[in-house]
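Q: What does the assembly look like in three dimensions?
Context provided by user:
Components: two
Sequences:
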Amino acid sequence: MYRTHHCGELKIENVNENITLSGWVQKIRKLGGMTFIDLRDRYGITQLVFDLEKNTKLAEAATKLGREFVIKAEGKVVERSSKNPDMQTGDIEIIVEKLEIIKASETPPFTIEDESDGGEELRMKYRYLDIRRNPVRNALILRHKVSKAVRDYLDSKEFIEAETPYLIKSTPEGARDFVVPSRLSPGSFYALPQSPQVFKQLFMVGGLDRYYQIVKCFRDEDFRADRQPEFTQIDCEMSFVTQDDVIKMFSEMAKYIFKTIKGIEFEGDFPIMSYEEAINTYGSDKPDLRFGMKIHQLNSVTQNRGFKVFDDAEYVGGICVEGASNYSRKQLDKLIDFVKKPQIGAKGLIYAKYNEDGTFKSSVDKFYSQEDLKEWAKVFDAKPGDLLLVISGEKSNSLNALNELRLEMGDRLGLRKKDNFVPLWVVDFPLLEWDEDSKRFHAMHHPFTSPKAEDLELMDTAPGKVRANAYDFVVNGVEVGGGSIRIYDNELQHKMFDLLGFTPEESEAQFGFLMEAFKYGAPPHGGAAFGLDRWVALLNGSDSIRDVIAFPKNNTGRDIMIDAPAPIDNAQLNDLNLKISPTT
Amino acid sequence: MYRTHHCGELKIENVNENITLSGWVQKIRKLGGMTFIDLRDRYGITQLVFDLEKNTKLAEAATKLGREFVIKAEGKVVERSSKNPDMQTGDIEIIVEKLEIIKASETPPFTIEDESDGGEELRMKYRYLDIRRNPVRNALILRHKVSKAVRDYLDSKEFIEAETPYLIKSTPEGARDFVVPSRLSPGSFYALPQSPQVFKQLFMVGGLDRYYQIVKCFRDEDFRADRQPEFTQIDCEMSFVTQDDVIKMFSEMAKYIFKTIKGIEFEGDFPIMSYEEAINTYGSDKPDLRFGMKIHQLNSVTQNRGFKVFDDAEYVGGICVEGASNYSRKQLDKLIDFVKKPQIGAKGLIYAKYNEDGTFKSSVDKFYSQEDLKEWAKVFDAKPGDLLLVISGEKSNSLNALNELRLEMGDRLGLRKKDNFVPLWVVDFPLLEWDEDSKRFHAMHHPFTSPKAEDLELMDTAPGKVRANAYDFVVNGVEVGGGSIRIYDNELQHKMFDLLGFTPEESEAQFGFLMEAFKYGAPPHGGAAFGLDRWVALLNGSDSIRDVIAFPKNNTGRDIMIDAPAPIDNAQLNDLNLKISPTT
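A: Here is the predicted structure of the complete assembly.
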């Protein structure tokens, strides 16, 4: 037997018991004739004591142990003379009577401590050692608890967890599929699902009524920051529901998660904001509501005063940064540099300081009088001491830059605290978005999202104006999930594919089985999917989902621990009837 | 709002309430001026009533509905005059006041009833309609409940559910990998995991202590009966454990499942049987213990009596079928045909009837006296009225044939009842098995299974005799799961790869990261994996795992509903730097 207890378990009640522990040597300290070892496992740390005088041989053996050795120690629990109240087992220690080295350890490539000396690349290569560190292990335990909470909640609401296939069919629509060559059907491929969307809809056609699954999804994208080729989705679907029903169900789920995991209780409903309002007020469809600093449009108070930059602009708008009128020239220059970065793309930044004395100082004083600037301030309801930051240009670009600037100012002012969670639902998304490159509409959510009944006739006349029964769940500027009420009529689904530029043959070939299914009594249905990785990162206070994934891939999609992807044998390629083309 | 209640919910307490139901039309019956509709959803059936006299228009509308129409009905709950105690809602019916057709249905390709008129192929093509049938839907609900029970049990034992990657590296060992070409690393491939084996071991190295995951695994095999290219595993691993600890933990899990799902309580420990005993006594490493009919070796009582067939045989053995001495010539001929089938492969079958009058009649009376046959009977402890069936030949082939014959006789005698569950553990498997084709050893479980300490030195002298710390969990002749105590020493792991014919370079290239991991304080660990599909099939009384998979693939690995696998675009192939070779 390797242990009678684990290392986080022994308390004052266990004093005088003979016990056995196994674990890793975290630390060895010598104090005169005494040697203390911190023995670690997943559950905690227990102090082992060796007395040179009382048991010379054992105490000498103890000093020869090294960090991360796996040992087994038998001994007696005694009360500590100087207790450590910060430690679960801080009331006791173990007088070791028998010691066994189960497995020695070479010196690890980085220290197994909360603040490790290992860089990210090194820690990823030795991820199994990284997992021994509290922050990483605790993130995995948190992930387990979130999954458990989700399952318990959904189970209590009569959702059935049902598995959908991983080897499905490739669809030309949307982001890229990973494909899997079939050996038994040479020249044919399976695809890995980007989501179980179609299958969960078929579950509804099949009368399963409420479905969920915590499931891996796959997307072969060019890697952007914080994307992984495989990610985990909490995937849900319900029959006989309206948008309100779905929002209610998953608001409750979110509350259950916050309560169970963080002990936070939310009163009342989460705010619901239209897409239009979110874009106009926050420059983003995933607004961070932990702070105000709303965007206001300024066209009416800035144009036709002779300042050509504003006069020529489709849009002039800005934010008001409370108490920042004392920003220095240098600080303002940095902000100008910030908005001009290519990924933000503003042409420039105009500022107007509302000084404490009630006067204004702006970078466009040549064109705008104190009276004019007072008008600006009025739009924001600004107070003396505030700083107005204004951007102009093409509307959506400007709003996008203002969103980035707002988030940056929120960070600078410490308004984005990680333990403050402010959720909302964003609704009334456009059904379609126009893609200039391909000169056609794309589905903003996906092709199965239903248009709002009141906008149905616009599908023929002004498809770009049709709003969808779609909703996103946003927390602290992060889109944690989203969903929609689906199309459940084959005619409407055909029309949707038509608008997306599918020929009838293409839509039939790709999704014929779904439209066929709709002919046999499809119920109205809708659902949502949540990013488990994002949920956990949010609750863990992590900036990257990589922190909450056991074995993540790096920015180029590589697993550097196991060194994948990798070439395969020619024999295997032959079996699959494949050849590698020479790279061009 | 589509419904205030679901169709399995309304009871006598709800009488006089105004309610709304939505669901599918299961059945329409006309009785004089009354029309009755059975409205169905996942939860049950509720009877809707339309009275031609009281509401002519509505009653006429009702008669125009068809099977599988989705409707919404508002009305009042009333007590039934003739109650149906077999129905959850059999005390009440609904006097419908408002009716809406949500979605009409074409006539389904088969009847949505417990006994459908649709063949398997048709039901698979329209699996979403098949799921509407009670037997299929109930199997999926059972699957959900089993998963939930497993998670609840493991969570209560401090197992952490942690996700392992799906995009990993291909290994030449074992069954075939499905591979996934990488677009970002042209010419390189990921592989889909055949199991998360190596990752769960790394979790143990990482100190996670207790891990589990219900996870999809993939195996590109030539399809055999009841194999799926993707299947679901309950994958578990524990640190600081011996074989006994693991067997105890998962015996408890099995008991929890039987109790929760079937209400069956098991007293005491499950039997533990050595591999050797299982093979010699049942001809199988997964014996069905629902019945006895053990195999006995008969060499000593059959050889050297002048019957050349037995004299030349390495092995003579048989079974005793209780009360079957009255089998007719025709019945016996059928058994002979059975054992001669190529998949069973016996050369023939000798019988000896132990007649009720105490005499014997055998097919080898020429060679064996009544006294001789009495000796045979003694080996089996046979009684008058029994039938002895004897097979001879090469030992393992004969045992295999006797296993098949035993199971066949068990079926014929009704000894294999589906609701009788008899579990056991089979232990002490050989570590290696010799493969005549490749003239080398293969790992019987997998290359990470540890040899028994007491057999360690045989690894150099007689590797074929080394027993492994491996165990299988068997119920009713089905291998539901299995596992082993793993190697956690890099030297021993190297030696194992060596025995399996890997060069040091090959083992380093494939599993270098694992052996590297073992250098940094790996704990002793072991675990088990259970086939969720098999568990559920067993509990569901299904012969095929296909019955308990929502969207299964057929025998050739095709999903005939979505028509996958399928060819992909040339553009996609080019992106992946791949070409299809002409089939040769």
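Follow-up: Chain B has a mean pLDDT of 95.
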